[in-house]
Amino acid sequence: MRRWYLGLSTSGHDPAFALVDEGGQIVFAEASERFLQDKRAWGIAPDHVPHLEAALVAVGFDFAADQLLVSSSWAGVKADIPVQVSDALLPGSDSQWLRCLQRSAQENAGAALMRLGLSETLPDVKRFDHHLCHATAACYSAPFADATCLVIDGEGDVGAASLFDMKDRTLKRRWRSWGPGSMGTFYAWLTRLCGFDWRAGEEWKVMGLAAFGTPIPSVVEALAGMIVVDRGRIQFAADEKVEAARQAARPHARRPDQPILQAADLAASGQAAYTILVDRILASVLNSTPGNLVLTGGCALNSSYNGTIAATFPGTQVFVPSAPADDGNALGAALLGWLADHPGASLPQGDGSPFLGSMASRRSLEKTATFAAAGRITRLAGNGAAVVADRLAQGRIIGVMRGRAEYGPRALGHRSILADPRPADMKDRINARVKGRESYRPFAPVVPEGRVAEWFVREQVSPYMSFTLPWRDETRKQVPAVVHEDGTGRLQTVADATNPWMGELLREFEKRSGLPIVLNTSFNIMGKPIVHSVEDAMAVLMTTGLDAVLIEDLLVEKAGT
Known about the structure:
The chain is α/β, with parallel strands linked by helices.
């Protein structure tokens, strides 16, 4: 009999699960939205039965003999805390709804084990502090033995920020924020003012839109005044300060039916205020002493801010995991379950690979190979990178579905749409013909890890697209499709050790184009999660302007391309 550890993200949104083996290593981790193809999967059980069953089979779980221990990513039920729900920023009904979803996820965690024949009753579940789950998940992947770990999100069991010290890969909390005050709530409110929906995860749209705007000093000052930072801890300012910020922002807001660029200055002002506030937190946390910083929580997805940290705090080595938001907490819960079962053990260290999810179904792939209506089908025996590089250099737009899926919200080459970054119209082509999204939305450049300094002003390792950096003036004109309006790019770096196929593709593309850079965006259409199945990938090919898909070693090209 072997023991396995199942971690569940039980926030009520962004459900996910992770599996840890007896040795304390993550063997599987994936968000439920991928399997269900339901963006953010609000209210769905993280241990969705068919999804969990498929993963257990994939890792070799013995349903007749093995034991599965369950952990969740919250210590308590938020709805049980007797607080008055405020609607000063977000509607009170949204907060009540979230509390209801979190209660359901927490109270029913592990119920899938009964359906799978692994328990006769609702199993005992170890419940762990939400911010501790964030810190544990992030530090598992971090390449440090010692570090400071800062968690900033919408809310935890208590407060919306926590600081941990990791010493010899053992975590200890230094402090937590207690008052009402949340950078996550601030950005969700900003997202709503800009005419987008934070519930759909559209904070991304605000970050992209900010590059088109100019910060308004009076609005920046008012927005930064909403939140007080006291020794790193955050709380909302007095009611009159919050109201002053609302009044300053309101004239620049837009309704969803109004032109998007109308909110560009507000987006830029909000991003500038966010930078001021998080800089204040970090100034207190780092105490003028550079070192290793692990940044996690939902706010760590703000790549525009992350890219400024090393310049503002010289000497600081910053690490952001591939899944810093609540879906990533499944990993933290699973590891904490393992640690609780192994007293005295320190936090295991992962290899940094984000490729922890599902594989393409071989059965579906073989069926696709005989699907004549799909177009021209070619099996590529070992030369897939060279063939794809050829097609990219010819202007083709190609979806790639290879190996295990990425854990986290960003496609990193295993579930990606790739293109040549040189044509000036490539961004518009992909947004209009493939993704079906707003024309201003940017794409990521993929660059070999050791060559960042050739292209960007600051050198930064960024394997998970966690950092947005300024391009060098003399290089950005060569790759207009991956340059933001403000001259920056959300960078993905590739190392052969963790992403060998993408490394080979970059070398092959450079032979044909002279540039070691390709355009990367997630393999999906707007409003849908990244593709999960072979059928999902083929549906995107057949219903959009995508030219081809590579699924493992099978290249499917539309007729006439």
